[in-house]
């Protein structure tokens, strides 16, 4: 599955950036697409309908809100999704060293805006597979390797 990874400069700042990892809707299982929050990811001069990693990795119980709330699934799903996002972003943009992706990152240099498509393991409904090992999750567990195939977005 492909993930769009982007670094965007926040206007009006010297070198403060916003990092995102989004999954194109075409990569999301057809049964989940209607339940996903749609975000238009910028790719070059165009936009691609995409969604958050949390919507992709969520277990089936997440969509049954009566079960998700009492089991505290929201907090665990958020942690797993943010950790996956941080690992993917760090693989593409090594300046991102945070364990969880911050809202913004101020850098001492100005690397410029960039966006890539990168192939990862299938994340559809992967919560139950990934969550137990979230503390030791590494890029290789997501099918990412140093020098992985980056395609300009």
Number of strands: 7
Overall average pLDDT = 87
Structural class: alpha+beta
The shape, in one word, is globular
The total count of helices amounts to 5
Q: Provide the succession of SSEs.
A: EEHEEHHHEEHE
End-to-end Cα distance: 15 Å
In terms of DSSP E residues, the strand content is 25-35%
Radius of gyration over C-alpha positions, nearest whole angstrom: 15 Å
Primary descriptors:
single chain, 153 residues, alpha+beta, 5 helices, globular
Structural topology:
Elements: E1 2-9, E2 16-24, H1 30-33, E3 39-43, E4 46-52, H2 53-57, H3 65-68, H4 73-92, E5 105-106, E6 114-119, H5 127-130, E7 150-152
Antiparallel strand pairs: 1-2, 1-6, 2-4, 2-5, 3-4, 6-7
Please provide a written account of the structure.
- This protein has 153 residues and is α+β, with helices and mostly antiparallel strands.
- Helices cover 24% and strands 26% of the residues.
- It has five helices and seven strands.
- It has helices spanning 30-33, 53-57, 65-68, 73-92, 127-130; strands at 2-9, 16-24, 39-43, 46-52, 105-106, 114-119, 150-152.
- Strands 1, 2, 3, 4, 5, 6 and 7 form a seven-stranded antiparallel sheet that branches.
- Strand 3 (39-43) and strand 4 (46-52) form a beta hairpin.
- It is globular.
In short:
With 153 residues, the chain is an alpha+beta fold.
């Amino acid at each position: 599955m492909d993930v769009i990874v982007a670094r965007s400069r926040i206007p009006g700042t010297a070198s403060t950036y916003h990092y995102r990892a989004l999954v194109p809707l075409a990569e999301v299982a057809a049964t989940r697409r209607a339940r996903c929050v749609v975000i238009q990811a910028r790719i070059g001069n165009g936009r691609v309908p995409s969604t958050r990693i949390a919507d992709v990795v969520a277990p089936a119980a997440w969509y049954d809100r009566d079960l998700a709330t009492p089991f505290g699934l929201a907090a665990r799903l958020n942690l797993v999704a943010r950790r996956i996002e941080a690992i993917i972003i760090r693989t593409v943009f090594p300046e991102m060293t945070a364990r969880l992706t911050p809202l913004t990152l101020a850098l001492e240099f100005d690397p410029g805006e960039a966006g890539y498509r990168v192939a990862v393991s299938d994340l559809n409904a992967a919560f139950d597979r990934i969550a137990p090992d979230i503390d030791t999750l590494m890029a290789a567990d997501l099918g990412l390797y140093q020098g992985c195939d980056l395609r300009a977005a």
